[in-house]
Amino acid sequence: MALTDEDKEWLTELLGKQKQSIDARFAEQDQKIERVETALLTAFHQWASPVEMRQRTHSAALRAVDLEMEALTDRMAKLERPHQQ
């Protein structure tokens, strides 16, 4: 059975409409995905900013404690030297 030119034209038109519908759905999905990505990145940034600030504060405090420990270790070593001789 062979298709007539009219049948071919009808099929081409039908497939063209379906392709447009599918393309529109893909465009809509792309927009939804972009909104979700933006929301996720915004939420992550809002969470990460305070964490980074706390990390910097803790890091600075640990450096200060390390310096204080080093100073105390040096003082202890100086105090112990005369007794060792």
Give an overview in words.
94% of the residues lie in helices and 0% in strands. With 85 residues, it is mainly α. The longest helix has 80 residues, at 5-84. It is rod-shaped.
What keyword list fits this structure?
85 residues; mainly alpha; 94% helix
Secondary structure tally, helices: 1
Rg, Cα atoms, Å: 36 Å
- Helix and strand content put the structural class at mainly alpha
Average pLDDT, to the nearest integer?
91
The residue fraction in helices comes out at over 70%
Distance between the termini: 114 Å
| Shape summary | rod-shaped
Low-confidence regions: none
What summary fits the major beta sheet?
A: none
Order of helices and strands: H
Strand proportion: under 5%
Q: How many individual β-strands?
A: 0
In brief:
The protein is mainly alpha-helical. It is built from one helix and no strands.
Topology summary:
Blueprint: H1 5-84
